[in-house]
Amino acid sequence: MIKAGIVGATGYAGCELVRLINSHPEAEVSAISSVSFEGKKISEVYPSYIYLNDMICENADEVVRKSDVVFAALPHGLSQELAAKCKNNGVKFIDLGADFRLDSEDEYKEWYGGEFLDKALHEEAVYGLPEFFREDIKGKSIIANPGCYTTCSPLALAPAVKNGLVELKGIICNCASGVTGAGRKPVQGNHYPELNEGFHAYKVASHRHTPEIEQTLSKLSGEKVTLTFVPHLLPVNRGILATCYADIKEGVSFSDIRKAYEEFYKDEYFVRLLPDGMCADIHNIKYSNFCDISLHHDKRANKLIACSAIDNMVKGAAGQAIQNMNIIFGLDEKTGLDIIPPAF
């Protein structure tokens, strides 16, 4: 059994890791930590785990000592030293935060206000979006697990961008997320009376996931991609719906685009390309590691509209992290993640 430790286990992504690994046939939760709840059982924080997982939150050093792989579900700026500690102890490290996601230190400084503490460590890190970078992930020790917006938007656009079927200028990613994406710590905007019965954009044209989406699409296209990203907050717990717009190149038919998507994703279990006429819906991917994609053609404007839906806590966080763990340990990617979403 793979011994999996979780640092930051009482946050939303961390507790989702506990839930999923608890049922994983080839891994077990070896130790957990939480600064806020050290010394408490996780079942005291989340009563749904009572008798199923009553592990006590320890300190991060104990988690590293007891584990083959450590998942870090921490805010940005807190993972780099932990990654170095894991490396020195021969422990694999999967970071659900942002510290290793950006290749450029200048961009990391601009968007996160931090710096690369160990540049050599960053050069070892691999960006863990399996559907695009699977071969790079295999056998690696430091994985930067993508976030939720930075998973659903590139998945929606990748085949069109990679195959040169759409213009790279003028791409728009219009995304709406459930409130768990904001984390467990309460803030005014996530307070029930503020959130319920509402729907609004936030951090318009200034969200930190923008350069990460651009970085992924630039790697796939071989050209620099600059796009417009506008996130919105939905009054629901889980799910992200990304609606992405791109101008179709002259001479390219919608049939060409459909064929490109079918070919690109034909062997990807976790990407479900929906039949024509269906629309991706967060209702249909809840609690699962699936990404549903629907394609639409605005004939008047000759635009591709690609919609993708994921569970932001699973494919957008914990599930994808476990998918990465499965890859680096040579397991079938579906192991522990072959979950049918509930129908209602």
Describe the structure.
With 344 residues, the protein is an alpha/beta fold. The protein has two domains: 158 residues, 3-Layer(aba) Sandwich (Rossmann fold); 163 residues, Dihydrodipicolinate Reductase, domain 2 (2-Layer Sandwich), CATH 3.30.360.10. The protein is built from twelve helices and 14 strands. The strands form two sheets. It has a seven-stranded parallel beta sheet, with helices on both faces. It has a seven-stranded mixed beta sheet with strand order 9-10-8-11-14-13-12. α1 packs across α12 and α8 packs parallel to α10. The longest helix has 15 residues. It is globular and about 60 Å long. The relative contact order is 0.15. The mean pLDDT is 96.
Task: Please outline what is shown here.
The protein is of the alpha/beta class. It has twelve helices and 14 strands.
